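Changelog note: in this version the structure field was regenerated for every chain. One regenerated record is shown below for reference.
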Amino acid sequence: MADAIELYGWVAKPRDVSKLLQGMKSNRHPEPQNVASTGFPDTPLAKSVFEYAKKELSPETFNHSMRVYYYGANTRLRFTSSVADPNLGKAIQTQQFPDWCFTDETYLLTCLLHDIGTTNKNISATKMSFEFYGGMLALRLLSKDLHAPIEQAESVAEAIIRHQDIGQSGKITTVGLLIQLATIFDNMGGHQELVHQDTIKDVTRHFPRNQWSSCFAATIRKENELKPWAHTTALGEEDFPNGVQNNKLMEPYD
């Protein structure tokens, strides 16, 4: 049985994505993967958070969260209740980082809750940046309300807090790095070599973008107006929302 560090995605990885991608043994030729043949956690915890997210998030943000899951997660080397299942697979992690071993459940929880701080209710409820407040909400929901293992709840919270913590120095958790890669991919078309075009077509067919580029760009600008100190500004007060708005990779699917 894996320990909590591996099981819940705490293993440290370089925060500099460019160095990580340069140094990895990648085929650089991703294969198509579709939603229908992809495993999906069906634990009571996963089901509860799925229903919570579907209720609390806008349809556009919920679909984005699901796309991030399918683009990012690995099930070639996966742990479900700590038992490895080598038969299922999903995009970035499966084909590019098959040695990253943590539960699909942990990654799903992170995906479903990573933008919980952007809802109209939550973005106006605090002076904190949305990722930080979202991490606090996720930690409370998972540890207090749903009684998830504390190591798992804290891993999800840390990944949410740091999912826009892009930089070149230091380390980040595997779950944190994976959700960075998957959100950058869906939001800006970054690292497009990691996911096959047919995977994009299938994932967006199941979870349509519905003008997500415009939607999320507006959310960024809203937070920056409400909170000019927000952590999102570190990505560029104009560069970030403009990059999201002008996502050329995803433009055909918007």
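Spot check on this record: The two ends are 43 Å apart (CA to CA). The first helix runs from residue 4 to 7.
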